[in-house]
Design goal:
The structure holds two protein chains of two kinds. Chain A is of the alpha/beta class. Chain A contains five helices and six strands. Helices cover about 45% and strands about 25% of the residues of chain A. By secondary structure, chain B is α/β, with parallel strands linked by helices. A five-stranded mixed beta sheet of chain B has the order 3-2-1-4-5, covered by helices on one side. The chains are: A alpha/beta, B alpha/beta.
């Protein structure tokens, strides 16, 4: 009886659990409403060769692939093409060799999004030797 | 006597809970401030197949280029010569290690705007750069 009384005294008094849970839920609500999921960023590695660097004989032997990025489209091997076609071509090239050297040539009025689209396709097909040239 | 000690115990518990909430609020606030190191006005182009950087290299230089061609490093606008000086200094300090340079350019920026930053990197001795893109947008 005495023990029961003591326990009652403990609960009755000092720590108001209901208020604390109230505050905790208020805080939880606040954080859930105010926080937003963060964006996930990716990085695409490219080489930016120095203009005065001469192409050596050894480098000439590596198969080179030129992709042009224009303001409103793309071209490969001097043939204009859309992104899905470029995707298929790069897939074929990747299945033969992943060591192909890719040179992306961008015109001044082409957008960064256009360049990133090509780099993304290269990343998709695991083609890693990419250089960017400006026209 | 016993009642007094119980009161002291419960008083200590309340303060502890107070402090814990204060700490939680502090961490939540500072975590969101850390995200402000990037210019929120830059809309990166999406690259779902790009690789995600798990750990941020403390030596890396992030060059931000907005849709109007304004070049900033650490939210400070820089001219071409200032950008060159920043990269050159980092290259000298990190030698012989390469300096990781990340270009965060808006998807609408033209290549002429991005080219300037790339050319300054090349001039300063950085021939490998990383193009930042958006892998996955937070909902």
């Amino acid at each position: 009886m005495a023990r029961k009384k003591r326990r009652q005294e403990w609960h009755a008094g000092e720590l108001n659990l209901t208020a604390m849970i109230d505050v905790a839920f208020q805080l939880l609500n606040f954080f859930v409403i105010t926080t937003h999921p963060v964006d996930v960023f990716s990085n695409l590695d490219v080489f930016r060769p120095q203009p005065e660097k001469m192409i050596t004989k050894q480098e000439e032997e590596i198969p080179l692939l030129e992709i042009f990025v224009f303001k409103d489209g793309y071209a490969m091997s001097k043939k204009p093409m859309e992104l899905p076609e470029l995707d298929r071509k790069l897939e074929r090239i990747s299945s033969n060799s992943k060591d192909s050297m890719i040179i992306i040539k961008c015109t001044g009025d082409s957008t960064q999004a256009g360049l990133v689209n090509v780099l993304d396709l290269c990343a998709k097909h695991e083609l890693g030797k990419i250089s960017i040239f400006s026209l | 006597m016993r009642k007094q000690s119980e009161e002291m115990q419960s008083g200590g518990l309340i303060s502890m809970i107070d402090v814990i909430f204060q700490i939680i609020i502090f961490f939540v606030c500072t975590a969101s401030m850390q995200d402000n190191s990037h210019d929120a006005m830059i809309n990166l182009a999406t690259a779902p197949h790009g690789k995600v950087e798990k750990e941020k290299n403390p030596l890396q230089i992030e060059i931000e280029i907005n849709s109007r061609g304004l070049v900033t490093v650490g939210r400070s606008p820089l001219t071409d010569s200032e950008l060159y000086a920043v990269i050159r200094k980092a290259v000298n300090e990190c030698a012989p290690m390469p300096v990781p340079v990340i270009i965060r350019a808006d998807g609408r920026a033209t290549h002429t705007m991005v080219r300037k930053a790339m050319d300054e990197c090349t001039k300063a001795g950085v021939t490998q750069v990383r193009i930042a893109a958006l892998k996955e947008k937070g909902q």
